[in-house]
Write a structure and sequence with these properties.
Helix content is 4%, strand content 41%. It contains one helix and 15 strands.
Length: 220
Amino acid sequence: MALKALYQLEDLNDSSGNGYNLTNYNSVTFTAGKFANCANFGNPNTTKCLYVANALGITNGAITMMGWLQILSTAGGRIFAKGNTTNYVEYIIDYTSTTISAIRCKPNVGSNTATYTYSLATGKWYHIALVYDTTNIIMYVNGYAGATAAASGNGTSTPDTTANNFTMGSWLSRAGGFAPILIDKVSVYDSALSPSQIMSEYRKGFPLGGGIAIGSPAMY
């Protein structure tokens, strides 16, 4: 597997060494987060997102997008979106107060969605991940896979993410979908991480010997 981008969100820099630094659209701030600082999109959020105008070298095949999320209200919105103009497919993580959805969208063709029913509380951190293994799209919350959907095929038009972009907090320059959230430690891979790798990333969010229980995400 190859790490394509890593955003600690202390600032706009890509810590992977690949140079995919973010652009700040309408003044997202950096405030205390899960790990030191995080990206704070505000509540309400009607205009703000972070983006990089690049497909991150992922134009087809497997992908993993993941990071830490705290919602500031239950209004819902878009957490991540990544598109490309090679096969016209975008990958999206959306949320409402009661669901988190992993979406593989093929504009003008249709979408495949794995929806994880999970009630999000304000003021709590959740680890979320979208994995696409070229056959299925999988939604993870707090290290656990809660939904899977078969997904394949290409789109026929430019994705809603405004072509070759990776965005956090909403689409770039598009009305609607802006999310009132905090985001921390975001990573994107050009491979499908295994369930044990996703769980390992989740467990890194806790002090040694603390915060880990065996069972469903609801236990955390």
